[in-house]
Amino acid sequence: xxxxxxxxxxxxxxxxxxxxxxxxxxxxxxxxxxxxxxxxxxxxxxxxxxxxxxxxxxxxxxxxxxxxxxxxxxxxxxxxxxxxxxxxxxxxxxxxxxxxxxxxxxxxxxxxxxxxxxxxxxxxxxxxxxxxxxxxxxxxxxxxxxxxxxxxxxxxxxxxxxxxxxxxxxxxxxxxxxxxxxxxxxxxxxxx
Length: 192
Hints:
By secondary structure, this protein is an all-alpha fold. It has helices at residues 5-21, 28-35, 41-45, 49-77, 84-96, 99-112, 116-139, 146-165, 168-186. It folds into 2 domains: 1-47, Homeodomain-like (Arc Repressor Mutant, subunit A); 54-186, Orthogonal Bundle (Tetracycline Repressor, domain 2), CATH 1.10.357.
């Protein structure tokens, strides 16, 4: 479902609220203030706190899946090479520049451990990520399977969290080395 411009504005504001105040700070009023909108705007679109959290979960997950989908398209259209690490590095550096997106994802993931509805939403999006990573590995001529792709997605999560905690000047080197190690350890060898 396409988001209206106002709803997207509210969800983008909610990302900033979570990044700055955590989930405890995620209220309709805080989102309205962050968005620069009159009080009551957020609750007109998302009536309850649960609706706000669910919509934000879908927004964050859809954004990440769309980025990985674009990466899969880029790899699929490129001549075979070892560009997978470089493409992933570019994507991860872009995500690290969007701190709010990653922090919100972490906060919502932790909340999903106690909220079955959010867990189901995240599981659906994660399954698509695993599918895309498996597709990318196949496009690059790497040995691949759902299990390998799932392990890569989980490993990428850990790498991103660790990179987020590093000083910005150290992130590129850390990511490059980590992605190279992961590529050789889990992605398998070239099939050809």
